[in-house]
């Protein structure tokens, strides 16, 4: 049985999430999307399904914030949606969860890994984060939730570029890349984005390409002291698989709460395919990726995104995981 892909749509208060969703839902794209809408301040948890005209799209309303008090509700609602799909009562092939503007996306994302019932029915496709070009600079300065949402993103969509100065938009773009070089940045002015900007991003697919904005490494300006930061590790020497597994396993045990998102495509000694590691906090997965082509220059690339990252420890530790560093050790 195939798993139902889920997109988490997040972004700070007023960043344009609903505007985008409304546009996407009106588009004729052939996808049947069930929407789970999480909002503060509704009178009680409204479990009625608001099925739209064609009987395709559904909205669920919750009370409270999806990332804390109502996570149990999210699990229950996803279970109910699945049961209704199975019995033919509802017809949808994907789910979009719109979080409240203050939600931390991590617990929502983790639901799809830790809850056995949910992970046997659904597959997390990506976290998409909307960023308001007019207000994001101030929001990122003042609210750690805004930084978390950017840090977790697999795709970032900048809104309100029509009312922001182009220089401010460019400065924001550079800041977003510094916080999260992994997520591709697009634009959604007045919700103008295509369904491809939202669906099938495969951010949580282990075989997906590791995208790192090319200007990330050349960008040296650091005007903002964001708590959520990132860094990229690159190494052309092959890594030792056992060593790197042990090292990363230990790192997530100690620093898991700070590590928001990490993903690496690695060149491993004796392995003719890419080895892909990725995770959210303490949940880490590993898998074989595509084969290296004959003559292709092989390089390991790892990106870590998180709060107060132990950068030196990570760099030093990873450097000890090369096959030649291991061979040079006494007794090796
Ligand atoms: N000028 C301009 N306004 C926009 C744009 N996108 C959204 N808006 C407006 O911004 C306001 C907030 O948009 P919403 O889509 O409700 O934002 P939201 O993220 O769903 O908001 P919350 O649910 O409160 O977190 C609305 O008045 C939108 O019309 C844009 O690209 N440009």
Keywords:
seven-stranded parallel sheet; five-stranded antiparallel sheet; 2 domains; hydrolase activity; 26% strand; Hypothetical Protein Yjia, Chain: A,domain 2; globular; chaperone; binds guanosine-5'-triphosphate; nucleotide-binding; Zinc-reg_GTPase_activator; 332 residues; Rossmann fold; alpha/beta
Category by helix and strand content: alpha/beta
What value does the average pLDDT take?
A: 82
Whole-number count of domains: 2
Q: What CATH architecture of the largest domain do you see? A: 3-Layer(aba) Sandwich
Largest beta sheet: strand ordering: 3-2-4-1-5-6-7
Q: Count the DSSP helices.
A: 10
Q: Class of the largest domain in CATH?
A: Alpha Beta
Helix and strand element order: EHEEHEHHEHHEHEEHEEEEHH
The gyration radius over C-alpha positions equals 21 Å
Beta strand count: 12
CATH superfamily of the largest domain: P-loop containing nucleotide triphosphate hydrolases
The main sheet comes to: 7 strands, parallel
Low-confidence stretches: 41-57, 61-65
Helical percent range?
A: 25-40%
Distance between the termini: 47 Å
Organism: Paenacidovorax monticola
GO molecular function: hydrolase activity; nucleotide binding
Family: Belongs to the SIMIBI class G3E GTPase family. ZNG1 subfamily.
Catalytic activity: GTP + H2O = GDP + phosphate + H(+)
Structure commentary:
It comes from Paenacidovorax monticola. Residues 228-322 form the CobW C-terminal domain. This is GTP-binding protein. Zinc chaperone that directly transfers zinc cofactor to target proteins, thereby activating them. Zinc is transferred from the CXCC motif in the GTPase domain to the zinc binding site in target proteins in a process requiring GTP hydrolysis. It holds the Pfam family CobW_C. This protein is of the alpha/beta class and 332 residues long. The protein folds into 2 domains: 4-214, 3-Layer(aba) Sandwich (Rossmann fold), CATH 3.40.50.300; 227-327, CobW-like, C-terminal domain (Hypothetical Protein Yjia, Chain: A,domain 2, 2-Layer Sandwich). The protein has 10 helices and 12 strands. The chain has helices at residues 17-26, 71-86, 105-114, 116-119, 136-142, 144-152, 166-179, 241-255, 311-319, 323-327; strands at 4-11, 33-39, 58-63, 94-98, 122-132, 155-159, 184-187, 228-235, 259-266, 273-280, 283-291, 300-307. The strands form 2 sheets. The chain has a 7-stranded parallel β-sheet, with helices on both faces. It has a 5-stranded antiparallel β-sheet with strand order 8-12-9-10-11. Helix 5 crosses helix 6 (144-152). The longest helix has 16 residues, at 71-86. The chain is globular and about 65 Å long. Residues 41-57 and 61-65 have low confidence and may be disordered. It binds guanosine-5'-triphosphate (GTP).
